[in-house]
Amino acid sequence: MSVTDVDRRDELVGWARDHDASIAFLQMGDPSLTRELTRLADAGAATITLIGISLGPLAPGHSWLRRIAAHWWRERTGRRPEIQVATRLATTPDEVAPTSTETRPITGTEPGLTSPAWERVPGHVRQVLICRGPRCTAKGSEETARAVILGAMEAGLGDDDLLITHTGCQFPCNQAPVLSVQPDDVWYGNVDAAAARVIVRDHLDGGRPVEAYRLK
């Protein structure tokens, strides 16, 4: 379901293998959910059961699994398989067995991918770009992202204050994990979870860049 789950692909592949299943991602992972649904449908699947997996506290709401599956189902040309969606997210291997999971079918009447609330660019003061490239991921940017997001929540910083964005490689790879703040044009390196909490407190909430981790 979340970006952090993409970092645990190998673990999820193992879970899927135990049930003769495949994996797909809602964001920043390949294959995407829509691509995998198309592959399965083209291969002749009559029924597809979707079980959302969340291995951390930062996954989007479960409703997004139904929204995206329903969008694909409505847009699908040709034969459409029946799609069943688990009614809750799985967090352990024991919770992903399709035979013991309660599901509800996709009907095509689910909410779409647009809303009046998502029409405009958020009125944020700063955009925080967290690198999730290969080196930053290998050096713990999952925990960096978690610390930034949870720290912002604890500080009471909302959408009007911050737009937190996961990115690909931001290039000063020797300084991984990398985080940058715009429009301040401040770049930070070696941002582990502890450093991230300081950056949230002093810079994102307090307005004072943290020189100890600053690259630019």
Structural class: alpha/beta
Note the run of SSEs as H and E. Answer: HHHEHEEEHHEEEH
In whole angstroms, the N-to-C terminal distance is: 34 Å
The number of helical elements comes to: 7
Overall average residue pLDDT: 94
The largest β sheet comes out as: 4 strands, mixed
Gross morphology is elongated
Report the radius of gyration as a whole number of Å: 19 Å
In terms of per-residue confidence, which ranges show pLDDT below 50 for 5 or more consecutive residues? none
- Sheet with most strands: strand arrangement: 5-4-6-7
**What's the assembly state of these chains?**
single chain
Helix content: 25-40%
Structure commentary:
It is a single chain. The two termini are 34 Å apart. The chain is elongated. The mean pLDDT is 94. By secondary structure, the protein is an alpha/beta fold. The strands form two sheets. Strands 5-4-6-7 form a four-stranded mixed beta sheet, with helices on one face. A three-stranded mixed beta sheet has the order 1-2-3, with helices on one face. Helix 6 packs parallel to helix 7. It has seven helices and seven strands.
